[in-house]
């Protein structure tokens, strides 16, 4: 029986607007199992990304019950210990995780240096090859890459930490159709090679169908099917 990676029960998410908290996700019950790609599909503004940011530890404004990788979490408290490494996110805009004024080598090496990893340069080079990039590109700045190349580097940044759960927030929606297909096929290959668990958010049902083992639809902050 596969391990439960994340379990949500009665989870609601709020955003702060001035002095008020506005609930944008209502009473979500979900279970994500090891090794699967789970999809959240729905129109823009339905709450998909808001839910994902809670699972990434980027929004503490939630209520309900949330257990991730056997750790029961508390609203308002940041991720600690192994969870900070085991849960990684790839954003819609790769600039969100790539410092615009740092060469890619520096951005990618910093978290590994903090973790006192060995052979960092070699690990980065191998990760570049894994996603179809020439390792010499680690000497470039983000603006010197195409959109598809930047998204591949953002995937490298997440995978270098060997996460157990990879969160994907509309990872191809800013790319043209041919590059979208390349990135999605790359993610499928990476999942198959490493038994990676993924949670994919998309407004595109075709993307969800192509990628996901299971999926639910969201609308107006609710799971609707």
TrEMBL record:
Gene3D superfamilies reported for this sequence: P-loop containing nucleotide triphosphate hydrolases (3.40.50.300)
SMART domains for the chain: AAA (SM00382)
PROSITE patterns named among the record's database cross-references: ABC_TRANSPORTER_1 (PS00211), ABC_TRANSPORTER_2 (PS50893)
Coiled-coil segments on the chain, per record: none
All copies of domain ABC transporter, residue ranges: 8-224
Main location: membrane
Topology class, membrane: Peripheral membrane protein
EC number(s) from the headed UniProt entry: 7.4.2.10
The entry's keywords: ATP-binding, Cell inner membrane, Cell membrane, Membrane, Nucleotide-binding, Translocase, Transport
Top-level taxon in the UniProt lineage: Bacteria
One Pfam family it belongs to: ABC_tran
Enzymatic reactions: glutathione(out) + ATP + H2O = glutathione(in) + ADP + phosphate + H(+)
Function: Part of the ABC transporter complex GsiABCD involved in glutathione import. Responsible for energy coupling to the transport system.
Family: Belongs to the ABC transporter superfamily. Glutathione importer (TC 3.A.1.5.11) family.
Subunit structure: The complex is composed of two ATP-binding proteins (GsiA), two transmembrane proteins (GsiC and GsiD) and a solute-binding protein (GsiB).
PANTHER family the UniProt entry points to: GLUTATHIONE IMPORT ATP-BINDING PROTEIN GSIA (PTHR43776:SF15), TRANSPORT ATP-BINDING PROTEIN (PTHR43776)
Protein name per Swiss-Prot or TrEMBL: Glutathione import ATP-binding protein GsiA
């Amino acid at each position: 029986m596969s391990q439960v990676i994340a379990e949500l029960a009665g989870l609601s998410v709020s955003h702060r607007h001035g002095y008020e908290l506005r609930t944008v996700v209502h009473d979500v019950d979900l279970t994500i199992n090891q090794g699967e790609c789970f999809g959240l599909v729905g129109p823009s503004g339905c709450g998909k990304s808001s839910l994902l940011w809670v699972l990434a530890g980027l929004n503490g404004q939630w209520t309900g019950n949330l257990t991730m990788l056997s750790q029961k979490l508390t609203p308002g408290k940041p991720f600690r210990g192994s969870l900070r490494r085991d849960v990684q996110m790839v954003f819609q805009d790769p600039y969100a995780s790539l410092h615009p004024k740092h060469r890619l080598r520096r951005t990618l090496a910093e978290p590994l240096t903090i973790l006192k990893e060995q052979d960092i340069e070699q690990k980065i080079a191998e990760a570049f090859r894994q996603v179809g990039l020439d390792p010499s590109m680690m000497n470039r700045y983000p603006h010197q890459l195409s959109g598809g190349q930047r998204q591949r580097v953002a995937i490298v940044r997440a995978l270098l930490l060997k996460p157990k759960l990879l969160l994907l927030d509309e990872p191809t929606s800013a790319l043209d159709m041919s590059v979208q297909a390349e990135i999605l096929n790359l993610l499928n290959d990476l999942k198959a090679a490493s038994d990676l668990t993924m949670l994919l958010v998309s407004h595109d049902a075709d993307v969800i169908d192509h990628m996901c083992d299971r999926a639910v639809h969201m609308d107006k902050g609710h799971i609707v099917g």
